[in-house]
Amino acid sequence: MPGLTAMAFVWGAGVFVNLLILLSIALVFDLTVTKLKANDFTNFTDDFLTSALSVLIITICLPPSIEFGVLLVACIASLGLARDVYGGIGNNIFNPAMVGYAIVLIAYPEQLAIWPGTQQSSLDGYSGATLLTEFKYRDNMTVDEFSSGHTIEAQSALLISAAFFLGGLFLLARRIITWHIPLTIIGFTTLLALWGYDNGSSLSNGSPWFHLVNGGLIAAAFFVATDPVTHPLKVTNQLVFAGLVAFITYTIRTFGNLPDGIAFAILLANCTTPLLNRHHLTRNDSK
Fold first, then answer.
1. How far is CA 193 from CA 34, 201, 225, in A?
2. Cα distance between residue 219 and residue 169, in whole Å
């Protein structure tokens, strides 16, 4: 909620409009599925809260006030294709929110590429690409030259990342999650960005700070990659999982065609979870 509030402060109330629409679609979807499957609404509230969490995560990935059809596809893909097809809550291999987001990212790239100008920097509702996209195609500008022209946007990105970081600290304090996955993603991304920084030349891939505060890295590290259903059970395997997320994200950001690779990084890392869990459980059985 701190992160969503910061996003609404920067980009306007359309962020919460997206959330309300997604929650409404999820409610209708869950009511329909429950009715068709067993007509038993005993655990409906708990099931819907799980769906609500998925659409909350989808919301933070999407530009504000996006078209209803995009929200509908994202929600149905997340709850239906990624969750219920695999047997329902707790049986899914892939993170449902990332499946929903990845599908609409592939299906509607133009709509997801355009974000409104920050309320602080634009009185006329200017729309444009994200900082990650603009940085990738900055036409031989040095990092300092690029940064000098995007001061307000960088401050807004920092505000949003800091808000998600505070939310993540709350999860840690309440022991809802552990530090292993978030810290590994943040730390390994920092190391990779240091390797590709090149002291800020026109060929630089961006500073560690730039990669940490722009895009959804902080939010994903605390709220997405820590999904207990889709990450490995053993702590050492969680470190491998988180390192893979960081590596794929950085590789897509710097060498791929997409502005950010977090969703695909998490989905690809999800593919390793059954293998890592099987290896861990097999070793325990042999003992």
1. 46, 14, 20
2. 11
State the Cα–Cα distance between residues 203 and 163, nearest whole angstrom.
31
Q: Residue 104 CA to chain centroid, in angstroms?
A: 13
Name the token pair of 280: 């861990």
Burial class (CB in 10 A: 0-12, 13-18, 19+), 164: buried
Instruction: Name the token pair of 98.
Output: 């990332």
- Look-up of token digits 């708990």: 46
* Residue 216 three-state SS: coil
Helix, strand, coil content of the chain in percent (nearest 5): 70, 0, 30
* Cβ–Cβ < 8 Å for 169, 219: no
Asked whether residue 124 carries a pLDDT value surpassing 60, the answer given is: no
Distances, alpha carbon 107 to alpha carbons 77, 227, 233, in Å: 12, 25, 33
Measured CA distances, 174 to 18, 129, 171, 181, 225 (Å):
28, 36, 5, 16, 17
Tens-place pLDDT, residues 94-115:
999 999 999 999 999 888 877 7
The helix or strand, by DSSP H or E, that contains position 115, with its residue range, turns out to be strand 115-116
- pLDDT tens readout for residues 178-237: 999 999 999 999 999 999 888 778 777 888 898 899 888 999 999 999 999 999 989 999
Q: For residue 182, which of 103, 241, 99 has the smallest C-alpha distance?
A: 241
Question: Rounded distance, CA 209 to CA 217, Å?
Answer: 11
Of the candidates 93, 70, 71, the one whose C-alpha atom is nearest the C-alpha of residue 81 is 93
